[in-house]
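User: quick one, fold this
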Amino acid sequence: MRIPRWQAVTSLVLAVLGLGVATYLTTTHYDTAVPLACPAGGGVIDCAKVTTSPQSVIFGVPVAVLGLAYFVPMIALCLPVAWRSPNRLVHLARLALSVIGVGMILYLISAELFVIKSICLWCTSVHILTFLIFVIVVTTAPAMLGSDAG
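Assistant:
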């Protein structure tokens, strides 16, 4: 059940960075006095267009808040102590949350490309961070969920 230390540390750093971006996007969503730092003006890259589109809210919840709801538990699941946990459920929860995260970013990317027709650089950074966490978690899942993990 041993994995290289860099995987636990890297996943934690990525999750903390993701929480930072999700916090910024949530703040700019609710506080109009905080400007969204990103190019705007009708080009392919238009953060404001993406973050204010109808697709930026799912079932009444801003996507930025969903980012917070992803990264907060992911930070807990990516703490070194969680990676060392003998509890199989911790590793299953990390894997399940990673898969849900990637599913969500696939939806969001398709919405940006095909519905909104603009890209948000802040959102793209969250997508990349989520994908990198997913790669780390999936590549360690066999070791974490093997017969010696529980």
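User: anything notable?
Assistant: The chain has a mean pLDDT of 91.
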